[in-house]
Amino acid sequence: MRTLGVDLSANPVKTAAAVLEWTPGQARLAELRLGATDEDIVRLVGNCDYTGIDCPLGWPARLVPFLQGHLGNDAGAVLAHDGPEGRRVLAYRETDRFVAGLLRLVPMSVSADRLGHVAMRCAVIQAKIARTAGPRRRDGSDGLAEVYPAASLKAWGITARKYKGGTDAARLAREASLRSLRDQAGWLRLEGADAQLLASDDDLHDALIASLSARAAALGRTCPVPAGLEQAAAEEGWIHVPNTPLAGLI
């Protein structure tokens, strides 16, 4: 099996991809790149069995009628979301609320934060994949799963705080995260140069975690969609949080 992890950015320059090759008893980092274009991602998706992408695959379903109401001057559709609670359901998806309740980790809002710019690129990439290989379900059931590296790390018990950015402190935090990862996953083969690259850049670091998370999703070892939320997951996307230790991936 080959899994692809993508740490998506609105800017291809900061978009990272990591491919893991899985064989009995081990996983090897087969490809690691920074600066992945849409075309790179579409090609890699086609060459891998399962993909985990760190970006929302959709928007809150209730956002659409709200925007349609605003565009059409339909006061009722807009006033249905008056007040903080009304706006909250426009800002967060069902999967965001699930992750927050599970891990006390609140994902960024795809509709009310800068993450929306990244999600627009992700929607275009999904359309390009659909054009060449057919559409993928947003709930992750057919090879393309939404993942959240911070949630995966927390689920695996790996402390990774303040590891973003180019400071010395951030690099030390990434090095500590990678040490914990390798302690738990002795089967993960990282060459010296790759380990240095992963420690040097948080986008590359998260692409690796996304690829490991893709493996968990491929094996069915992530938290399932709760009953009653299947349609929301299909429309809005669903974050695949591992529900097994790293040892369960091999």
UniProtKB/TrEMBL annotation:
Origin species: Arthrobacter mobilis
One Pfam family here: DUF429
Protein name per its UniProtKB record: DUF429 domain-containing protein
Domain of life of the source: Bacteria
